[in-house]
Amino acid sequence: MNYHILTLFPQMVLDGLNTSIIGRAVEKQLISVEAVNIRDFSKDKHKHVDDAPYGGGAGMVMQPGPVCDAYEDLCTRLGRRPRVLYMTPQGKVFNQKIASELAMEEDLVFLCGHYEGIDERALEMIVTDYLSVGDYVLTGGELPAMVMIDCISRLVPGVLNNDESAEIESFYDNLLEYPQYTRPEVYEGRAVPEVLLSGHHKNIHEWRRRESIRRTLERRPDLLDGANLTKKERQFLEELMQAAKEGDEEPSEQLQHGLENGLGKLEES
């Protein structure tokens, strides 16, 4: 997997992706990260890449020329035109499913805007995907790009020491990850669940699946619509939802939504 980041702040992304798992993956040549400085393609003698917006308004807009020239130069070097992902709060919200799809690509280009964004003509000419990390505004696209690169890279074979890790973490199969424990066995009166000490792999697997279902219901019930559950697991989920409805505590608005929608789907299935 080769990442090409079009940015005004190349050192920012290189420093951010040069540590931990991603840094080691680069060293092992499992992935590569290239930061292309858009400013290098400015024809202005002062290397300006932005100007005031037509029609008025606050801030500055990145000009189309340097952005398109940076991409065309990259395409010439690669000999093809790879997908261009533009980081914008107007885009589709990035998730694990999108990460899995993008991990199949050989090259990915991340276009990072700044100031008030990029001239629309450049976006129309080169962008293939508009992606967001959430419904909020950041100063630039560099942080979202790093988030996505981190997530996608974990799905590249060999990047994780244990390839199973990517399959059992949160959002795999639309379920949140189960609780994790390590030594000591008892801390401040709180003990590790006995099943995890039993060495019985089947029981441990079943406990973890149940805890994943329980945690997803409590924290992200909206994910349950797409969860791939066995008949036994669906029955367990139905029991959890029924218990929550009959409990003394008033369920949160999010949980109530999950109870109403999830229980209805279970009854229909």
UniProtKB/TrEMBL annotation:
Principal place of residence: cytoplasm
Compartments in which it is found: Cytoplasm
GO biological process entries: tRNA N1-guanine methylation
Location of the region described as Disordered in the Swiss-Prot/TrEMBL record: 240-269
Pfam family, one: tRNA_m1G_MT
Domain tRNA methyltransferase TRMD/TRM10-type positions: 1-224
One GO molecular-function entry: tRNA (guanine(37)-N1)-methyltransferase activity
Taxonomy, superkingdom: Bacteria
EC number: 2.1.1.228
Keywords tagged on the record: Cytoplasm, Methyltransferase, S-adenosyl-L-methionine, Transferase, tRNA processing
Catalytic activity entry: guanosine(37) in tRNA + S-adenosyl-L-methionine = N(1)-methylguanosine(37) in tRNA + S-adenosyl-L-homocysteine + H(+)
GO cellular-component term (any): cytosol
Residue positions binding S-adenosyl-L-methionine: G113, V133, G134, D135, Y136, V137, L138
Primary role: Specifically methylates guanosine-37 in various tRNAs.
Assembly and interaction partners: Homodimer.
Family, similarity comment: Belongs to the RNA methyltransferase TrmD family.
Protein name: tRNA (guanine-N(1)-)-methyltransferase
Organism: Hungatella hathewayi WAL-18680
